[in-house]
Amino acid sequence: FNPFKKIVDFFRTPCDSRDTFNQTDLKRDLENKLFGQHLASKVILKAVTGFMRDPNPTKPLVLSLHGPSGTGKNLVSKIIAQNLFQGGDSSSQVHLFIATHHFPHRELVETYKVQLQQWIRGNVSKCPLSMFIFDEMEKMNPVLSDTIKCHLDHYTHIDGVSFRHAIFLFLSNEGATIINQIVYDYWKEGKQREEIQLNSHGLEIAINRAIFNNKDGGFWRSSLIDSNVVDFFVPFLPLEYKHVLMCIRAEMEAQNLRYDPGVAENMASEMRYFPEKEEIFSVNGCKGVKQRLKFYI
Ligand SMILES: Nc1ncnc2c1ncn2[C@@H]1O[C@H](COP(=O)(O)OP(=O)(O)OP(=O)(O)O)[C@@H](O)[C@H]1O
């Protein structure tokens, strides 16, 4: 985390936003690349399209992505970046912060706070359409969550810089337990997971409540929740065996390997699933598929 290097870098690098945002391209990418996440796909498409089509947004776009590990939260960030910036997620306008990596020391929180403010402000003043991704929000010091919050309100200007064209994504595993429970209940009732809507069983409200009350999480009693700056809480559902198969197939194709259903089934069946009795959902989602594939081919 070196704000000075970053400042030097972005004086060299021009903004690389795509000339036009194409809703059809984003929709196609979500359909083709993100498996088993009908809710997240729908919300992300709606939110990003609405924001990008508005020439004069009153606030930044703020999305909070929640769900179990390996279900596509980072992947979605990448898909959004690919649709907004020529350099995709490697663009100089995309900034990824991982709580345990960038802000590891509790005693340095005041330093991090200043650096973070400078970083966000500096980058947005250079390229208003900048994307800030905060991974592992459940481990983020609430002081830093509140610092971020200062940039998210309506009409926020800090020293003459407006943040209303920026995008903030928060990624976390908080809410995973309640999401898993709701998807499991649907399964037990014999319903299709695609029937689950944002307001099913109060899903969005339940996530909101779960993260607000998680004493160990970065959102705990945080003004991020209080102040309604988050536009959407986006649930990521636990992935099933069939989705793991799709991930394996996609990975084989990405590595230019001929798809072999036998290999895929063998590999998918050796992943771990829960609950113990029914073994429906993959414990690690599609995480590890890429790394494990070489042992099966
Ligand atoms: N729903 C999905 N569709 C397609 N691929 C997926 C999906 N979920 C995960 N993957 C793949 O699995 C790997 C891990 O996914 P990703 O990093 O997006 O998970 P995550 O939800 O961010 O996990 P964590 O909470 O542990 O950070 C990536 O290679 C990603 O492409």
TrEMBL record:
Pfam short name (any one): TOR1A_C
Keywords attached to this entry: ATP-binding, Endoplasmic reticulum, Glycoprotein, Nucleotide-binding, Signal
Residues annotated for ATP binding in this entry: 67-74
GO CC entries: endoplasmic reticulum lumen; nuclear envelope
UniProt record similarity statement: Belongs to the ClpA/ClpB family. Torsin subfamily.
Protein name stated in the entry: Torsin
GO terms classed as biological process: nuclear membrane organization; protein localization to nucleus
Annotated compartments: Endoplasmic reticulum lumen
UniProt-listed SUPFAM superfamilies: P-loop containing nucleoside triphosphate hydrolases
Predominant place of localization: endoplasmic reticulum
Domain (Torsin-1A C-terminal): residue spans on this chain: 239-296
GO molecular function: ATP binding; ATP hydrolysis activity; kinesin binding
